[in-house]
Amino acid sequence: MQVENSIAFYAVVVTILSIVGAICLFLFGMKLMSEALQKVAGQNLRNFISQLAQNPLRGVLSGLVITAALQSSSATTVMVVGLCSANLLTFPQAFSLIMGANIGTTLKAWVISLIGYSFDLSQFALPIIALGFILLFAKKSTTRAWGEFFIGFALLFMGLNFLMSQSQNLTTHPEFIHWIQTYNQEGFSSVLIFVLTGFLLTAILQSSSAMLVFTFALATSGLITYENAAAMVIGENVGTTITANIAAIVGNYKAKRAALSHFIFNVSLMLLALIFFPFIIQIITIFTEWISSKNPNIFPQSIPFALSALHTLMNLLTTAIWINFIPQMSSIVNAIIPQKYSAKNYQIKYFNPFFISTSEFNLLHVKHEIATLASEVTELFRLIVSTAIPSEITNDEQKNSNLKNLFQTIQVHHHEISAYLQTIPFDELSREGQLRYRTMFITLERIQDIVKVNRKMLLTLQEKGKEKVWFSPKQYRDLMSLFDEVLMAFGQLFQNLSGEYHKMDITDSLQIEERINKIRNKIKNKLPEKIEQGKINPLSVEYYKLLIDAAENIGDLIMEINQTIAECGRNAPHY
Q1: pTM (2 decimals)?
Q2: For 531-557, how does the pLDDT look when each residue is reduced to its tens digit (9 = 90+)?
Q3: Cβ neighbours of residue 513 closer than 8 Å, sequence gap 6 or more
Q4: Centroid of chain to Cα 441
Q5: What range does the domain containing 464 cover?
């Protein structure tokens, strides 16, 4: 008897581990598909996200499209949280995207229920993998990405097939059947138990899609009732919000508000579903029977269709309600998470605890941060320039303190961007993404060089002040005309870093660089004559030349960045 019990226990453990393995295979296939699609459509998706969410309806549609492309609402919401933290999205835009992501994630349920349960796609898995493997050897990076997509697609449905067969095996184990039936026929309390089960398992797996497939398998195997399967789907819808909230822990208050709105939205969906649960189940049953001529209470094979309809209906209804109350949602999350300012707000955090990489979108975050860093360096140059002109009303002590703080801020910000960029897996980027990645590192190096030149300028000015060396009014005017051109170059740099690399035009930058060189040459060529005529203090010449050379050096470095970005845009493939 003891031996039989041990064998039965061993069989249950093996079956459960096999189910876990099937879920992992499903998740790995989804990961390959998602990351391959990002490589294929990286540029188009970046352009799309930079123009989205101009109004709530457009935001919802954008979230739907992005989630359909990424194959994961969790990946989309993590990305939205990161973009909010980087000030690339306002709260209304973010919330609209989140609502769209909730609808977009229901599309996969339809694909699985209509295709995966209609005929066995796994029988085509090996030929599809063979096709994908061949494409991996193509020269074009886009073709190789399609190869990864096909392999991921095949693995996804292989995982689905294994999950269905292993879940069917559970019906042969009396102990498991007895355990699950203990909670299967408890009325509404049973519904609540399965809502909690769906929530917890999804929070652990961080994938509502994988849990949805598992729920399909349990229901079609007859292990749980149609109503309890619907309850699990409702719980899974809330469980999927955990990923974004985990991501928001390291974010600022804007990121936390976006993640909290996702949780509140899905909790309101759950409450709405539970309040009207019998009525909703009846509507879905009638709809399923009308479409498929099969009652899900009688024919378990029709349950996936019914659950897909329930999933879509509840997300559509909740979106239809909340899209009219976005300001109210903003007030709710603002009250719960008040605005906070701190010195750490500019620091960058890695928003990707989810196993599906959003590397292409993380580049958007880096791009914004580099542009912000450039604006900080511009302010540093402007502040240093202001110290070059003596003024009785200027508080030198306060100015020096501001300079010290700005140097420190830039140094930390530069380090944060570099560290963040290194967390992005280079191999998971498209070819165009890899070009941007390298360009961003080069840009960071040149910006660091500009900061070093600024520091030398400041030391030159401080030493000039200590030696009590004076410049003539004409010298000041010439320096200011040169510095003004450099400031214009900084402005053009910020514009180029903020815009789309592949659309960049450096004509204006070249003209500014030409004017800088022209002013520098004019000043230097006239120096000997003015010294001889006594119009320039001989002691000031060395300091004067150092400042002129520094300004020209900064202009050259800015131009180098502009040319690097432009070259990246020209070399980027556009298929």
Answers
A1: 0.69
A2: 766 667 777 788 888 899 999 999 999
A3: 489, 555, 556, 558, 559
A4: 19
A5: 359-571
